[in-house]
Amino acid sequence: MIATAVSSAQLEVSNNPSITAPNRNKEIIYILNEKGIFQLKDAVVQVAHYLGITKNTVYLHLRNLSNNGVGNDEIKKV
C-alpha cells in the first residue's frame, strides 16, 4: 500500500514540470501526508527508503508542513 502510494505520488510529481528537482521529495511527502499515509505504522521509514532519503528528512518535511498549517496535525513518530 505504501509503495503504491509513493509510486503514484512520484509519477504525479514527475509529470508536473513546475515542480523543481529540489522540491520533488517535499511535494511527494505533502501528497502522501494529504492521503493519510503517515498514519500507518512504519510509514515514515518505508517512505524514506523508497525515496532514498533518511527518516529524519521525512520528519523535517512533515514538521515544516505542520508548522505551516498544512496537512494532518496528528503526525506521530514511530
TrEMBL record:
Residues 5-63 form the Transcriptional regulator DauR-like HTH domain. It comes from the Bacteria. This is Helix-turn-helix domain-containing protein. It comes from Sinanaerobacter chloroacetimidivorans.
